[in-house]
Amino acid sequence: MFSKSCEYGLRAIIFIAQQSAQDIKVSLSTISSAIDSPQAFTAKVLQQLTRNDIVKSIKGPYGGFVIEDFKMNTIKLSDVVKILDGDSIFTSCGLGLKECNDKSPCPLHFQFIEVRNKLKSMLNNTTLLMLVNDMNIDTFFLKR
Predict the structure, then answer these.
(1) Tell me: the pLDDT tens digits for 31-56?
(2) Tens-digit pLDDT profile for residues 125-143
(3) In the chain, what are the domains?
(4) What angle separates helix 28-35 from helix 4-20, to the nearest 10 degrees?
(5) What is d(CA 14, CA 17) in angstroms, rounded to the nearest whole number?
(6) Residue 76 carries which DSSP code?
(7) What angle is formed at CA 122 by the lines to CA 129 and CA 141, rounded to 5 degrees?
(8) How many CB atoms lie within 10 A of CB 73?
(9) Residue 125: other Cβ atoms inside 10 A
(10) Could you give the CA distance from residue 48 to residue 6 in angstroms, rounded to a whole number?
(11) Any idea what DSSP says for residue 58?
(12) Residue 96 — pLDDT band, cuts 50, 70, 90?
């Protein structure tokens, strides 16, 4: 459903949020290792998230990637999805057809609308702070 970029971006943002909540800056190599993503690919994804002010990149020997505390409650998973995949997941046909709407539906149209709406609601209503506080992600990435 999500592109590989988006999957890695979501994993990365959750990992960085978890580390940032503990006042830990994380390096590119640590992130790519933790989320099981190629380092060059992870760098491109993080570059997009940095340009869009989701994560902060701090240069130097004590640098790394962080998410500022005040942003944890405002960044939603939908923000990451829109940056990396656009909004087509919320608007396009489940079968990828160009001409699919209520008047000319594909075989999955009405069922997919329900799925898409639930996904949109979950992504719009889930902040990074919620994930850090509500889920046991302290060791989640270490298990992989």
Answers:
(1) 999 999 999 999 999 999 999 999 99
(2) 999 999 888 766 555 665 4
(3) 4-134 (1.10.10.10)
(4) 120
(5) 5
(6) B
(7) 50
(8) 13
(9) 11
(10) 11
(11) E
(12) confident
CA 74 to chain centre: 14
Q: How far is residue 26's CA from residue 124's CA, in Å, rounded to a whole number?
A: 26
Rounded to 5 degrees, φ, ψ at 76 are -105, 155
pLDDT, mean over the chain: 90
- Angstrom distance (rounded) from CA 11 to CA 72: 15
What share of the chain in percent tops pLDDT 90? Answer: 75
Integer Cα distance of 20 and 12 in angstroms? 12
Q: How many residues does the chain have?
A: 144
Nearest by Cα to 17 from 93, 76, 60 = 76
Return the sign of the alpha-carbon dihedral for residues 75, 129, 17, 57. positive
pTM, two decimal places: 0.88
How far is CA 55 from its chain centroid?
A: 11
In which residue are the tokens 């005040």 written? 70
Give the three-class secondary structure for 37: coil
Query: Does position 87 have pLDDT exceeding 80, yes or no?
Result: yes
Looking up tokens 């709406």, which residue turns up? Answer: 117
